[in-house]
Amino acid sequence: xxxxxxxxNEISGLVGNIGTKTAxxxxxxxxxxxxxxxxxxxxxxxIATAGLSRVAVTPTQATVxxxxxxxxWQKTFxxxxxxxVAEVGVFNAASTGTMGSxxxxxxxxxxxxxxxxxxxxxxxxx
Length: 126
Known about the structure:
- By secondary structure, the chain is mainly beta.
- The protein has one domain (2-17, 24-124).
- The protein has one helix at 5-16, and strands spanning 2-3, 26-30, 55-56, 60-62, 70-78, 83-91, 99-111, 116-124.
- The model has no long low-confidence stretch (mean pLDDT 96).
């Protein structure tokens, strides 16, 4: 997983309460297989069908090393068609917005109607 350059701008603004920055509260799936690059601003091919569209989630804190050193986004999608998920991302808006991170899955997941797909994305601050 990689944190995008645009995300660094949002995070520093949020921490310093500078400007009008927006927290990251959306997850999305995609079918793109291009490797991560820090200058990416969108998923390569975001999925907007089959029950796998971008959705709002409430982030939670988790502990990896120090208490609450990790932010976590989790969503269980109910698939309503057929799609292959090969990438996932965190965003700060329901459409467009800033992509905070993108992760290209090691193995794409082929999903069909009736499947459930649980997505968990974590950022650990160390």
